[in-house]
Amino acid sequence: MSKKSDTPYYVGLGIVILIFGYFAVTNVIDYIEKDKVVDSNRSVDRDPVADKFLVKFNKVPDFEFINQNGDTVTNETLLGKVYIVDFFFTTCPTICTPMSRNLSQVTDKLSKYDDYRSVSITIDPQNDTPAVLKEYADRYQANDTTWYFLTGDKAATYELVQKGFNSYVGESDDPAIRFEHSGNFALVDRDGYIRSRKDAQGNPIYVYSGITEQYSEAQLEEIMDDAETLLNK
């Protein structure tokens, strides 16, 4: 076959390639714009996910506590805010210090948002009065408009931990420890619902590790990224 007779064949092939390429690029752009490139089975070590891929769990039950300044704080107070919750006590000899240190880091990053709050609730209200919480808050240079340290009825607190956040709390048989609790942080959206991303296997994690332990790393970057997703919604 001569080069002259080959010309129509190559011209036709070029046109087909151009048309295919146009539709391929168009579909990719459309895919991105619709957030379809965000995999619902993201690893917890990856980038922040779109709000629609953050799993919504139960709504935080009603509560009423007193903060470090003696002011009443309720779940209604926090509606319209995105907040991160942990449970601790000021005389804790184990995980509370690293938890508070890590939450301080999270709070520093997210405090640029007017509608963000950190919420630390004591599981030892008998000792942790507002004055004691204020002293504890000062250790971390906590801004009392951004980071609430709360105390209240012990039975109501335990019920909130166990039923509201599906977490563990109890009294320890070791008198040096006194109380036991998890080292997790929970993320709550503006409407009062607990939210989380999924792990690499596609399972919702529900809470984020607030400390580095033997078999797990603290998930500070993950919870900060996901909080920002909710704050920017």
From TrEMBL:
Keywords: Copper, Disulfide bond, Membrane, Metal-binding, Transmembrane, Transmembrane helix. It comes from the Bacteria. GO terms for molecular function: metal ion binding. Residues 54-229 form the Thioredoxin domain. PROSITE patterns: THIOREDOXIN_2. The chain crosses the membrane at residues 7-25. Cu cation binds at C92, C96, H181. Disulfide bonds join C92-C96. Belongs to the SCO1/2 family. This is SCO family protein. It comes from Nonlabens ponticola.
